[in-house]
């Protein structure tokens, strides 16, 4: 009986550049097939949907991200993170210790909560944006100069971006204001009714 670990079977050889793959295989990397035709390169496995757009986790995340003030939430959250964790820094880097540190940590928690609110409920972006700007400015005297100005600037930036964000407008109908009028839609000029004198 041998105590050697089992070995895996060798992998089949891959075709080198300039050689055709074995018959019956269908490469998708632009190589030649056995019958002489060339298979087109396909970036995604499997066929594309009928509308031609690739579907997947990245495309779904991109669509979700574009329906809300994503970057406003990111900047607000990073600003809250900086303001929250700066009071936990070593004593040599902290300007205010004690109850002021707790107020700074509370401001950071509020900012991170506003970032989640901006991200998850885009309809409440105005309220959350205003509260984020207020909490960011209030962190200046409460939390070590607003997280050494970095947290304050990021939270004010994120809150103002959330307040200013507008959802993407749906696609307009063909035509709009500049559509061409048909003969039936051409307006008739008004007829002048004279005073009767010639």
Tell me briefly what this model is.
With 198 residues, the chain is mostly helical. It has helices at residues 57-65, 70-85, 99-120, 125-142, 144-148, 150-164. Helix content is 43%, strand content 0%.
Question: Strands, helices and their partners?
Answer:
Blueprint: H1 57-65, H2 70-85, H3 99-120, H4 125-142, H5 144-148, H6 150-164
Helix pairs in contact: 2-3, 2-6, 3-4, 4-6
Describe what you observe in this structure.
- This protein is mostly helical.
- Mean pLDDT is 75; it is low at 41-46.
- 24% of the residues are buried.
- It has helices at residues 57-65, 70-85, 99-120, 125-142, 144-148, 150-164.
- Helices cover 43% and strands 0% of the residues.
Cα(first) to Cα(last) distance is 128 Å
State the secondary-structure class. mainly alpha
Rg of Cα set: 32 Å
- SSE topology string: HHHHHH
Total strands: 0
The global form is: flat
Supply the number of helical segments. 6
Considering DSSP H and I runs of 4 or more, what fraction of the residues is helical?
40-55%
Q: Averaging pLDDT over every residue, what do you get?
A: 75
Strand content: under 5%
Main sheet properties: none
Keywords:
single chain, 198 residues, mainly alpha, 43% helix, flat
